[in-house]
Specification:
With 330 residues, this protein is α/β, with parallel strands linked by helices. The chain is 23% helix and 28% strand. Strands 1, 2, 3, 7, 8, 9, 10, 11, 12 and 13 form a ten-stranded mixed β-sheet that branches. Strands 4-5 form a two-stranded antiparallel ribbon. It has a two-stranded parallel ribbon with strand order 6-14. It is globular. The termini are far apart.
């Protein structure tokens, strides 16, 4: 049975390695993949779909040739896959491939949550499967396409109680992405990757000795929340352990990230669905389980969505800023 599945995988690779849907990715796409990768190619748990790997590999080879990537590893993400595995574990749909070392790792990653603009537009995504994608500023949507990792910077989010009497600072590292084409505004959108951790229930407590104290001598305190497997604000979010591995991998050595799907893929799949045909008949790809869940995908370009977001902002101005409450005595 395993041999039969492997044969089917190799056949799928051969059929899809030159997938025509989406933006051209260059002649490198014709490069034969190394044989050791074959067992990892497919649509099962822990595998990468053939067209996603083909495009990710082509992007990497192109950027290496251009001198923009100098890392032995590259990344890919399949945002059409579900956020949960059949066993209930977070869905592994982010991939790190290191061909020289012959290693392949599949990890959980969140997709963009999107937003609901009352009376104007609803492009909010559910937790399990993403239906809406786009590149508009403040849309909180995932934008598929080509990225290169840039600088990494850490930001202080506040303190949390790690153990009784032990408050530690949360310094969350953020890997900035640089995009091209549809993803060219990645820096303006502050799109990158980070650990899926944040602080909730924020309050202020006095601590003048802290290097993070404000002018009045207060620091932010909160409760640490790990939302691995949840949604993001458009960035790529990883588990804390995976984020540490990825951060170490890209330190001082930029590499590529290819996120599937692009706008052209979404249009092709939506057209196939409208015609009552499976995406494979149209020469494109979408995870079957998520396609059954979402019905048909939608792409929201900057030009169409930016005016709606601006209108919503005018109609719903934010309230005046208020200081965080003081923390309860402990």
């Amino acid at each position: 049975m395993r041999r039969a599945r492997l044969g089917a995988t190799l056949g799928l690779w051969g059929a899809l390695v030159m997938l025509p849907v989406g933006a051209p990715v260059g002649a490198e796409e014709a490069s034969a993949p190394p044989a050791w990768l074959a067992p990892y190619v497919g649509e099962g748990a822990g595998q990468i779909a053939a067209p996603v790997l083909a495009r990710a590999r082509a992007l990497y080879l192109r950027k290496v040739a251009e001198g923009a990537a100098r890392n032995p590893c590259y990344f890919a993400m399949d945002a059409t896959r579900p956020n949960t595995e059949e066993d209930g574990a977070p869905g592994r749909r982010f991939y790190m491939i290191c061909e020289a070392a012959r290693t392949f790792q599949a990890m959980p990653a969140g997709h963009g949550a999107g937003r609901r603009l009352e009376g104007l537009a609803d492009f909010a995504n559910g937790r399990e499967c993403a239906r809406h994608f786009g590149n508009a500023q403040d849309s909180e949507l995932t934008a598929g396409g080509a990225y290169v990792t840039a600088e990494t910077k850490a930001s202080f989010k506040g303190y949390y109680l790690a153990a009784p009497g032990q408050d530690v600072p949360l310094l969350r590292a953020f890997v900035q992405f640089e995009g091209e084409g549809e993803t060219a505004n990645a820096r303006q959108r502050a799109i990158g990757g980070h650990a899926a951790v944040t602080l909730k229930g924020l309050c202020r407590r006095p601590d003048r000795r802290s290097p993070y104290a404000d002018a009045d001598g207060y620091v932010i305190q909160g409760t640490l929340v790990d939302y691995t497997g949840g949604r993001s604000n458009g960035c790529t979010s990883w588990s804390p352990a995976d984020a540490a591995v990825i951060g170490a991998t890209v330190k001082d050595a930029p590499t590529t990230l290819y996120i599937y799907p692009e706008a052209a893929d979404i249009a092709a799949v939506a057209h196939a669905v409208a015609a009552g045909r499976p995406p494979s008949d149209a020469g494109t790809y979408w995870n079957a389980a998520c396609l059954r869940t979402i019905g048909s995908p939608v792409y929201w370009p900057q030009a169409a969505l930016a005016p709606l977001i601006a209108q919503y902002r005018r109609d719903h101005p934010p309230p005046p800023p208020r200081p965080l409450p003081l923390c309860a005595a402990r």
